[in-house]
Specification:
With 98 residues, this protein is of the alpha+beta class. It has a single domain, classed as Enolase-like, domain 1, CATH 3.30.390. The protein is 45% helix and 19% strand. It is built from three helices and three strands; from the N terminus they run E-E-E-H-H-H. The longest helix has 23 residues. The protein is elongated. The two termini are 26 Å apart. This is CO dehydrogenase flavoprotein C-terminal domain-containing protein. InterPro entries: CO_DH_flav_C (IPR005107), CO_DH_flav_C_dom_sf (IPR036683), Diverse_Substr_Oxidored (IPR051312). One of its GO terms (molecular function) is oxidoreductase activity.
Length: 98
């Protein structure tokens, strides 16, 4: 099962000043989605920016087909979905939400 972890910090104007995006179970090793992180750094996180970061994360991972855990295509699609969810939740928390 693919998993995504996100940690962000926002500056006083709501711009992303730090981003950490980790991916697991989508390749031979865990990885940091550096292209996806760069996509959001220095930007206000809106739906468009989050979509771009999620796409970048899905392109960065190197999943392999597995008859028990799903195809590489499925895992890549899940990374995109999970990255969007994790970014939205991290954004909510960074703004002071629960």
């Amino acid at each position: 099962m693919a998993a995504v972890a996100v940690q962000i910090s926002l500056d006083s104007s709501g711009v992303c000043s730090y981003a950490g995006i980790g991916l697991t179970a989508v390749g031979n090793t865990n990885l940091r989605a550096k292209k996806a992180e760069q996509t959001i750094l220095g930007k206000t996180l809106d739906d468009k920016v989050i979509e771009e970061a999620a796409q970048a994360a899905s392109e960065e991972c190197k999943p392999v087909d597995d008859p028990l855990r799903g195809s590489a295509e499925y895992k890549r699609a899940m990374v995109k979905v999970l990255t969007k969810r994790a970014l939205k939740r991290a954004l909510e928390r960074a703004k002071g939400g629960v």
